[in-house]
Amino acid sequence: MNPLSRRNAIKTIVLTTGALATSGALAQPAATPPEVFKLPALGFDYDALEPHIDAETMKIHHDKHHAAYVAKLNAAVAKEPSLATKTVEELVTHLDTAPENAAVDIRNHGGGHFNHTLFWQHLKKGTGGPQGDLLKALEQNFGSFAKWQEQFGDSAMKVFGSGWTWLVLRKGRLVIENLPNQDSPLSTGGQPLLGIDVWEHA
Ligand SMILES: [Fe+2]
Q: Which of 24, 45, 55, 83 is deepest in the core (most CB within 10 A)?
């Protein structure tokens, strides 16, 4: 092999090896976290809640913010595969016994995923307010639906920065609780019934 053709041969090998390495890196499935948790569909059109919440806010909130919580929770699963056998509700409920390397991710991103999933299910226009057992329980615990609305709204105004105001069933009673960031009443033994998400669209 003359020097010129040897140089060409080396160049070809380097280029080919480089190309293989590159295509190998691109084909690595481990680079993308498994989709154990999935972004649920909104269940209605982005503009369904206008004029109260505009379509753009709904789109960003669901497609970007909620999607990011799901993606980061899946990234946590890639690091700690034992999370994949649980539902997000189970993960958030048993935060106190979560693996040490995943507790912060479950609290923030698991909480964000669970809270928002509940939130989308509860948003509806023109329902005429609660009825039946829920109305009775609100009257028993807060005096009337109007009084509960007032207390719930007042409480939400007091959330500092990012957080939620929740209507929670706790030890057989309905209570209003404010929690910071994506913390969920589930993690302290409460059952969240309704939440106001305070911050991105406050
Ligand atoms: Fe949110």
A: 83
pTM confidence score:
0.82
pLDDT in tens, 86-141: 999 999 999 999 999 999 999 999 999 999 999 999 999 888 889 999 999 999 99
Please report the domains of the chain, with CATH numbers, ordered by start residue.
41-122 (1.10.287.990), 132-198 (3.55.40.20)
List, for residues 28-63, the tens digit of each pLDDT value.
Answer: 445 566 799 999 999 999 999 999 999 999 999 999
CA of 61 to the centre of ligand 1 (A): 6
Residue 8: enclosing H or E segment and its boundaries? Answer: helix 3-27
How many angstroms is it from 54 CA to the middle of ligand 1? Answer: 14
CA of 109 to the centre of ligand 1 (A): 11
Find the 70 Cα to ligand 1 centroid distance in Å.
13
Cβ proximity of 191 and 168 under 8 Å: yes
Residue 45 makes CB contacts below 8 A (sequence gap 6+) with 55
